[in-house]
Design brief:
The chain is α+β, with helices and mostly antiparallel strands and about 120 residues long. It has one domain (about 1-125): 2-Layer Sandwich (Tetrahydropterin Synthase, Chain A), CATH 3.30.479.10. The chain contains two helices and five strands, in the order ββαβαββ. It has helices spanning about 50-65, 85-100, and strands at about 1-15, 30-40, 70, 105-115, 115-125. Strands 3-1-2-4-5 form a five-stranded mixed sheet. β4 and β5 (about 115-125) form a beta hairpin. The longest helix is centred in the last third of the chain and has 15 residues, at about 85-100. The chain is elongated and about 50 Å long.
Length: about 120
């Protein structure tokens, strides 16, 4: 299996209004480091998993809708907590909907909210 990963970041504000989340229940900011990995069993006719420039540009397009936004006011998160896991899933679903993933085996989105804590959304294709 071959994999290619690109990385970017996004700065957001949000709250997680439930006592379960402790101090994160109040409005706060976060800078997520976003890593997206495309996996495929064989390289394409150009000898790559996916073009790095195209992968980076697509991720940047998806993140532009979240960057410097308060996710409490973003329609994609209405009625649900914008946890790291949920945001990773949102990014992954947006990538899946915006790309032809023929030939790929999996897509994985890792959101690092802290050097020692992250969440991953992986979908087998």
């Amino acid at each position: 299996m071959y994999e290619l990963t690109v990385r970017d970041h996004v700065m957001i504000a949000h709250s997680l209004p439930d006592e379960f989340f402790g101090p994160a229940a109040g409005l706060h900011g976060a800078t997520f480091v976003v890593e997206v990995t495309w996996s495929r069993p064989d390289l394409d006719e150009h000898g790559v998993v996916i073009d790095i420039g195209a992968a980076s540009a697509r991720l940047k397009e998806i993140l532009a809708d979240l960057d410097y936004r308060n996710l409490d006011e973003h329609p994609a998160f209405t009625g649900r907590f914008s946890t790291t896991e949920v945001v990773a899933g949102h990014i992954g679903d947006r990538l899946r909907a915006s790309m032809d993933l023929t030939g790929f085996a999996a897509l994985s989105v890792r959101l690092r909210e802290h050097p020692d804590a992250w969440a991953t959304y992986r979908v087998e294709l």
